[in-house]
Amino acid sequence: MTSVFEEQTFTLQWAPSASSYISDTKTIAGVPWSIGLQNLAPVLSATVYCKPEARNDPNGYKIPWTCKAKIELILEHPYKHDLNIKQTVDMIFSPERSTYNLAFGDITDVKNDYTIDGKVKIETTISVKKFRYITVSKLEEEVEQLTLEMASLKKEIEMIKKAILHKQPMEMK
Question: Residue 38: CA atoms inside 13 Å, Cβ hemisphere, count?
Fold first, then answer.
């Protein structure tokens, strides 16, 4: 079992008559997260957002990062908890992949069976299992290594060009 790095629970009180809803933002692993709901008839869609721009080092550089998160959405039945609709998915988030959409159920069923006082209660727990980011110094080391490799490749290209121009067999490393 993977231990949880950090988690937060969002409790949403959504009126099905509204076309969409976005939760308050909560910070998990230093990144702001929010949950959105949309009435995409005939389906209720849930969207998990993380805001990648939040991960900056003190010098203002963007820090590449990824995290593995478990998303658990529970649509609570107002009277019978054994009828709760539950979805659990594991997802990888990064600045390049910071939004996930989930079809959550038939909107008509949700309106008819899960609404109490005009609202639907949805609990969403985001558990970040692993979080990894690269420091600026690590990036600088990688750039330096790539620069050395590029210089070596340029030398090999020059040797190939000379061999082609002189039609001589060349010695490869």
Answer: 11
Q: CA nearest 76: which of 121, 38, 110, 37?
A: 121
C-alpha distance from residue 40 to each of 97, 106, 116, 151, 169 (Å): 22, 9, 21, 54, 67
Residues 72, 78, 83, 89, Cα dihedral to 10°: -10
- Give the up-direction half-sphere exposure of residue 105: CA atoms within 13 A in the CB hemisphere: 22
Half-sphere exposure of 73 (CA within 13 A, CB side): 23
Q: Using the predicted structure, report yes or no on whether residue 53 has a pLDDT greater than 70.
A: no
Domain ranges of the chain: 6-133, 135-173
Instruction: Provide the CATH topology of domain 6-133.
Output: 2.60.210
pLDDT for the residue 2: 47
Record the pTM: 0.59
Contacts of 82 (CB under 8 A, 6+ apart): none
The two structure tokens encoding residue 70: 């478990």
